[in-house]
Amino acid sequence: MHSDKPVQLILDDGTVFEGRSFGSEKASAGEVVFNTAMVGYPESLTDPSYLGQILVVTFPLVGNYGVPDNTFTNGISDFYESEKIQVNGLIISDYSHEYSHWNAKKSLGEWLKENDVPGIYGIDTRELTKILREKGSMKGKIVFSGADETDFYDPNIENQVAIASCKEVITYGSGQKKVVLVDCGVKHNIIRCLVKRGVTLIRVPWDYDFNQLEWDGLFISNGPGNPDFCEETVKNIRKAMEGNKPICGICMGNQLLSKAGGATIYKLKYGHRSHNQPVKMVDSTKCFITSQNHGFAVANASLGSDWEPLFINLNDGTNEGIKHKTKPFFSAQFHPEAASGPTDTSFLFDMFVEKL
Asked: How sure is the predictor about 3, in pLDDT bands with cuts at 50, 70 and 90?
């Protein structure tokens, strides 16, 4: 029998959920969002797109396969999507105190404590998710001693991309073609996917003027928070669009490329965070099951005359990618690099590299 400490999740509408702690015993606050994926918590927790958020995992049992070592090869994490846990807290229904997996080196609870991140189990995540679907993503806080232990926090009023981005230029690979990767909070599997395709990858901070460099292609990464804070990035992308070199974006990259093309972005009610989002390639009969993690979307109607949607979400009709009508510019709102799956759309990396 485990005697884990009582803990509360308090939503900003006054709703209180009682649970037990299995992570760091510290108060924390953020935007409460939910993910419906059945597996992949090591990848999700280290995804920088979750920066400033408290993650609710809807699949009931979590922790049963532990977590791997945080080892690196050539500066890239072997098993995670960044250097550390990015979420402000983790909310689950049933925590498995015992774990078993060939690659596991520690328990999920131990990992959370190492990263000073609180975790709660014993929460009715079905009821919590219903609230978030009906009312939308909302501010929440995890407290141990009382409601006044910490204040509510809205990550969307701060520049989360500036926090998540690298602080200096980093180079990977030694291929003939050079690709600039604008790091808005990049997942490491994007780096892996590009390097595996034989390019030299030049990773630059979100506000770095990459137009001063020599490059064959531009890649704009995923990232957390509100894209409206990234005007410096948009200005640099707009300058690059004056030429004809290939440009590709993923997730936040889709939104920033769209903004550079004159489109507007809006906040979704509760976002898309799962492994099973169906998207249709426009002007085709092709449908793909995709991994997604975003709270903002591109307004299709705001796309300029030079642009058109590339993918559409079949659940709600929202934009899932754009393409330029004459130049080699395109993007995807979903995650073709997956991590932790599915990998149905990894061909988008091939499409980009073939255009270099």
From this structure: confident
Amino acid letter at 288? F
DSSP letter assigned to residue 5: P
Compute the chain's Rg from CA coordinates.
20
Instruction: Name the residue with tokens 């004056």.
Output: 242
Cis-peptide, bond into residue 68, ω within 30° of zero: no
Contacts of 217 (CB under 8 A, 6+ apart): 177, 178, 179, 180, 199, 245, 246, 247, 248, 352, 353, 355, 356
- Asked whether residue 49 is marked as a ligand-binding residue, the answer is yes
pTM: 0.97
Note whether 87 and 54 are within 8 A (CB): yes
Residue 223 annotated as part of some ligand binding site: yes
Question: CA nearest 166: which of 193, 202, 198?
Answer: 202
Q: Residue 40 corresponds to which tokens in the numbers above?
A: 């992949």
59 is in an annotated binding site: no
Active-site residue set: 251, 335, 337
Residue 135 one-letter amino acid: K
Nearest to 165 by CA among 208, 199, 201: 208
